[in-house]
Amino acid sequence: MFKVPSWKLVELERIADFYSGGTPRKSEPQFWAGGTIPWISASSMHTTRVSSSEKMVTPEAIGHGTRIAHRGATLVLVRGMSLLDEIRVSHATRDVAFNQDVKALVAKHGVDPWFLTYALHASRPALLAAVHLAGHGTGVLGTEQLRRLLIPMPSLEEQLRIVGVLGALDDLIEANISTIAAIEGLLQAAFAKYGFDEPGEMELSEIVDTNPKYPKPLGIAPYVDMASLPTDSYQIDEIGARPAAGGARFARGDALLARITPCLENGKAAFVSDTPVGEVHVGSTEFIVLRAKTGIPLSWPYFLSRSARFREFAIRQMSGSTGRQRLDAMVLRKYRLKAPAPEALAQFEASASGLIAAADELKRENAILRSTRDKVLPLLMSGEIRVGDVAKAGARGNNERHSNGS
Hints:
The chain is α+β, with helices and mostly antiparallel strands. Helices cover 33% and strands 20% of the residues. The chain is built from ten helices and 24 strands. It has helices at 12-15, 113-122, 124-130, 143-147, 156-193, 300-305, 308-316, 329-332, 342-382, 392-402, and strands at residues 8-11, 16-20, 37-40, 49-50, 56-57, 68-69, 74-77, 79-80, 89-92, 96-98, 102-107, 132-133, 139-140, 150-153, 202-203, 208-210, 220-224, 240-243, 248-250, 255-258, 269-271, 281-283, 287-292, 336-337. The strands form seven sheets. It has a five-stranded mixed beta sheet with strand order 2-11-7-9-4. Strands 5-3-10-6 form a four-stranded mixed beta sheet, with no helix packed on it. A hairpin with a 5-residue loop joins strand 12 and strand 13. The longest helix is centred in the last third of the chain and has 41 residues, at 342-382.
């Protein structure tokens, strides 16, 4: 690895303290019911910054199976099936709890917390090579290998300059994510305004197809897994590629609804809006695919799936063993609601199509920003390129952001 002569290669354990997490007893409701502290696991770690989770714990859970990683900690996934393909590293932007599959690293004196996070991002190829296979196809990143990881260490001033550049890109990404979430909120409010989910005698099957039939893709196909479904936005987090074997098949204009506990209860759903027309995707067998029939806006089934009355019905209809119940698509077809007025559908379509197109453009912009960041990051962290004086203004702004420990 290229390194500026004045930069030392330092083992990770010399620049960061390591902490282990855990899981409070699920049988103790006082640790979970009404929880306000995000409990971070693999499913929470899809972005550079992490501040939320599907599962929350109460303050009483701290010290009873889990612990707090304070704002500014770097979280590293060290056990999970996803480790066979990628290394997940996130920066806690608020105090969080975390499970036993995650290590929390806290920067020592003289090390900027964000620099630590970006250094680990730059080291992902080396960390991925250190992952070994445990039972049941689970990947494990050994703590000793993590401790011995060599990190090029510039001066604190240089650290802040590097973080200023990378942080500016991440700030733009976060701003776009916030705008997309605001668009989601506007569309949900519009759906509710038109009273589309009021009780009635029409069955859902009259206006929405469930699990529509698509031809099976040949070879490798775009694939979406359960973890990629968001809980607070219609956007799918990531689309990978896998052999087109079994699984739910869907295309642009379809809505995906998670049908298992706890994904259904947590509101996991997505609207497929930013993929090539006619391209057939493959997803988890635990998806129910919803497609609007003629005369119904394509996004309408997705926003129905996010409404409170629909969710309550779906959860009541789940069956199976405790903790792994499922919603049957055939039962969902019999959901009853009031027939939507054509003029209301037209007005909703006019609003939704433009806003979703704007959100999709922000999503594409984020893909470019992430690509730029990921290309520049290893070059900056190795010293192969230097920030220079032009980044000092960005470093000053970043200094202010770090003055509160974030």
